[in-house]
Amino acid sequence: MQARDSAPGTPVRLFIDDLRRLRHAAGNPSADWLSRRSGIKKTTVETLVSGQLKRLPSWTDRVEPLLRACREKVRAEGGDPDTALGTVRVWKQAYDDIQNERPARSPLPSAAGRAGPTPGDARDVPGPSVWGGHLPVRVHFMGREEELRLLRRRITESSHLPIGIIGQGGVGKTQLALKYIHEYAPQYDVIWWIRAEEPTLIRSAFAALAGQLGLDPDDRPVAESVFHRLRDPSAPIRWLLVFDNAERPETLGEFLPPHGGHVLVTTRNPEWEQVGVPLRLDTFGRDDSVALLQRRVPRMSAEEADTVADELDDLPLAIVQAAAFMAETGTPPDEYVALVRGRTAATLQQGQPTDYPLSLASAWNLALERLAADLPNALQLLFRCAFFGPESIPRRLLTEGDLPLPGESADVFRDPILLGRAIRELQRFGLMRMDSGSATYQVHRLLQSMLRQQMTEEQRSAMRHDVHLLVAGSERGSPEDPASWPRYAQLVGHAEASSLVECRQSAVGEFVTDLVRYLRAVGDGQSAEHYTRVAPEGAVREPADSVSGRAPSSVGNTPSAPSGIPWGKGAGDTDWRRLIDQLRRGDCVPVIGSKASGGENSIIDKLVRDWADRFSYPFDDPWNMARVVGYAATVHGGPETVKALFAAEYQSRRKQLADDTPGVLDELARFPVSGYVTTSFSDRLFQSLLYEGRNPSRSSPAWWSEESSPKPEGLSEPTAERPLVYHLNGFFSNPSSLVLTEKERRSRSRFVHGHPYDSGPFPLSVLHMLTTRPLLIVGYAPDSIEFESLMSFIEQIITRSNRRRHYMVLSDVSTADSTEATISAALFYYREQFREWNPAIFWGVPDAFTRELLLRMGESEWISTSPRRGPARVPGGE
User: Averaged over 144-153, what is the pLDDT?
Assistant: First the structure.
């Protein structure tokens, strides 16, 4: 008799499956609860709702008591039993139809209109004949109507690809998939839900599906057997497979059917965007949050619901838990908000909905445990993100800036590869969101709060201070420059959230000063006053002149600055602080021009011009040493003879120079820098390094011919104790390096206009310095051929790979009538010219730069009192 036939696709099997779904639709009450309410033994209840019955159960003793108990549960949860489960009358009618062998319809509203199959032909059924797997409950779901329509459109338009519902934990990915199933069930013959966390769970689900499809075991993998049946053209089936909570795409590779039906994947891992068609799911809209809260807690006002939703940042699972907790305990909304703020983790453990396997706090803690085992660096990144604001975090704040972070636990901020891997893992576990368009990241404020509360006070202090260093050490530009304001606007929220103003480190105080200047520049005087008032005493210095950007010290028009050029224009306190910190750490490469060589510059200039006259140099650049001496070599004795003669005359004239005043080269030699680059032929830097007790080596590029190329000194890796001085243009103690022959000049030209990695004239140590460290370019006039040649070289090798903040010390001392206006125009011109390179430009002669540098570092520690050089003179000194 058909009524007793429980084979797949028969009316009895459909009704047995409806009994199993009945429990889920009622909120998944426990077997104990159903037993007490229905009067049915617990073991019998478990059999009824297991889907394993072999025949139709008794209506009076089994079905009706179970149905009424489930209706009671829905009513207790605030729902409508008729809407959620269907009326008792409809269930009785479906039962009687099966008994009387009439076409039956499912009594569940979610499958309304689905006719039962006629014997032997399940394909005529306009709804699923096979429906199951580990199908969760849908009782709490509401909203997401627009996302549901979008999901349907993507499924129908992209049936050959899986559709990935992607979002952080607790945003309702599973519930959206369930809503789709219940909304569009009549469109499918087979719907199967698969827990996809582990391959073993997936295989188990496919084995259960194979049994429902009536497949006999064979030698093929079970998934392959299922795919073969689903794609059988002789008996076509409309099918939907849902892989819930999938992790890595490669885990599902062998289980994804190639075509012929629909596949839904719910996941936190954004890697699924590259595999299928993504549907990004974010938090609730505020209206949905308020509606859900008021439905579950009718006494709650719209204003109270808005406050709760705001505190929970509209995270759906958090909203559901809050509603359940307040409904079950009678906790007032304001008290619940206070609990969330004070005891986030404990509060988020409460109110776990029956349709979610873990509470929000438990889900997060499970992910944290996995991270601790798999990639501790990702956990270190997340810990520090807990002290940023809930606003988006720019990527540049997650890389160590000019203020180094202490300890190995901060390695993730120093290594871009390690940082990228950590970010991917945090996204995979749904703990961080990324906006690829703006290169920003966000951690949910509830997770931030939970992490902070789980730390010890010592841990909180250390992590907060690291964030102070990341924010204060980031590149931001001048606070008076409107082009920099968007960066400052991003930093304000993170500075406030981390209580950065309370930090007593001087370098962080420099940032607070810049922040005050920015706030004043944009007209937010109230916030500027707040920072000035609450900062530690002395942390905020009175800002520089907001128009000129002049440094705050009283250097003014220094005696050594020709034509009254004001020192310091174009660079602010932040740039000074950053440069000083990098020099002290040796994390900088000074690039030194001939104007930093003191009196030697005038000797070289006069010697070259004398030679131009002696050999009747016919061209219009009599100051060009390489060309003048090269020309002399063609008319007098050949290149080697002329090179030696020129070097000898230089040394003779140099002996007449008595310049013992400390200059920029002498002071730069005192820093623990491991490498210097210079276009000057002078040996003074080398001599200064020797005087400081260091053991320098020096070398030049390998574009000379073999017979005239200077042998590079010091092939070992440079260190602070054994630094390298790299002469781009040769040096006087090596006469053969001073003048290029025509052949050598062509070799150099090919290098300068080609790619340095291809021609390979540099040692790897020099390439490493030039491509990884900030440069301090000092001793150049911006309109000189020397500077033009240097920048042509730098643009070939530096700007392609080195995006650090670099520094230029420039001055045009040839202009006798330099004024504020002409200097401002020059600064604007050079900023525009080097916009892509984005350097900090200091305007002043090298000696004035040296004095200002020493003043800012503290003259008692740094100003030399060497008998050889004498005490450095400072503005206002005797």
Answer: 86
